[in-house]
Design brief:
binds zinc ion; globular
Length: about 350
């Protein structure tokens, strides 16, 4: 893997990840860009104790540009995008409209491929391996930033999820605090350790494996299952069998098997609702341990993949119980979701 670090016209960082060491990436961004607005502010809610990023400058960002104005496509025929090169494999750059910036963290965009009309599920295993290498490298780089305590690599896919650009891409958020969901998981793991002497994540994976009714893909180095108390209609958790706190510590065997298993999961997601359905909207979220937190070594890196579509043409909305009280109502039994995800396996 070759990494090339450069800057865009307004000073934001741009990185290329290439599978071959002899690739040269030296195109210069010639756009007349003004300074980036980074006025995001973190406010703490006194009742809940959680944090809200107030990012008013994001109101000016680009919504659904036509395909020939896509800012994530390579620059071609005099049309200049965020990526000056005429082609690329994986490209990462600092978001021009960040939710978190400066002392409040950092936001990056990850372009999974230069092919505007592809989706992650269309990538080859080699391409997916390069994306994994980029996520891992970004995690290592974010760990060196004093303002970042936790890094979150994720993909929102589909207009139903609120995606404003059709080009296959994900994002990376570096938060200046430990997020509420991670705090909850760390607390559960600490309680489990205190009461049983064992690791919570190991026990969850072992229980799913032993039960078997919710297992979707039992790989050699990864296991994918629908969790016992799934919040979403179709939700899969993917764990490396050798527990590690974050992407940096995955071993070579897990890295080698990841593309095959993850691509298969995404392809099955697109088949859940049968032929003729538009691509399944999903959120894919890497849960990693905070860089420095008590109990970090007890955290289990995993990926959570879920869709907000519950049946053909119908979305699950976060309505009163979910939005008002944080209590999810899931109409699809996790065992039935797992059964469906096994039925739609690739031939
Ligand atoms: Zn594009």
């Amino acid at each position: 893997m070759k990494k090339t670090v450069t800057t865009l016209a307004d000073g934001r960082e741009l990185l290329y990840y290439d599978s071959h060491d002899d690739v040269v990436r030296d195109a210069v961004d010639q756009r007349p860009l003004g300074a980036v607005s980074t006025s995001s502010e973190i406010r703490r809610d006194p009742l809940l104790g959680d944090s809200v990023a107030i990012a008013s400058h994001r109101q000016g960002r680009i919504y659904h540009p036509p395909a020939d104005e896509c800012p994530l496509c390579p620059s071609r025929d005099g049309r200049r995008s965020e990526i000056p090169e005429a082609d690329y494999e994986v490209a990462v750059f600092e978001n021009r409209f960040p939710s978190l910036a400066g002392d409040s963290g950092r936001c990056e965009v990850v372009c999974f491929t230069s092919d505007h009309d592809a989706s992650f599920a269309d990538l080859t295993e080699e391409q997916a391996a390069l994306v994994l290498a980029a996520w891992t490298d970004r995690t290592a780089e974010f760990a060196r930033l004093p303002q970042v305590r936790q890094v979150f690599c994720f993909e929102n896919r589909g207009a139903e999820i609120g995606v404003t650009l059709g080009h296959p891409h994900g994002q990376i958020y570096g938060y200046p605090f430990v997020t509420p969901r991670t705090e909850l998981m760390l607390r559960s793991a600490a309680t489990h350790r205190a009461t049983t002497g064992r690791n919570l994540f190991d026990d969850v994976v072992d229980r799913e494996e032993a039960d078997g009714s919710r297992v979707v893909i039992p790989g050699e180095h990864w296991i994918a299952f629908v969790p016992y108390a799934a919040h979403w209609p179709y939700e899969v958790h993917l764990y490396p069998r050798r527990r590690v706190p974050d992407l940096r510590e995955l071993d070579d065997a897990a890295r080698a098997e990841f593309p095959q298993i993850y691509l298969e999961l995404l392809r099955r997601f697109d088949r859940i609702f049968g032929p003729g359905e538009p691509p399944t909207p999903y959120i894919s979220a890497w849960h990693q341990a905070p860089f420095e937190a008590p109990g970090r070594e007890d955290f289990g890196l995993h990926l959570e993949l879920f869709t907000i579509r519950r049946t053909s043409g119908k979305l699950k909305f976060l309505a009163g119980s979910e939005s008002g009280m944080n209590v999810f109502i899931n109409d699809v039994p996790p065992e039935a979701a797992a059964q469906r995800l096994r039925e739609v396996a690739s031939e």
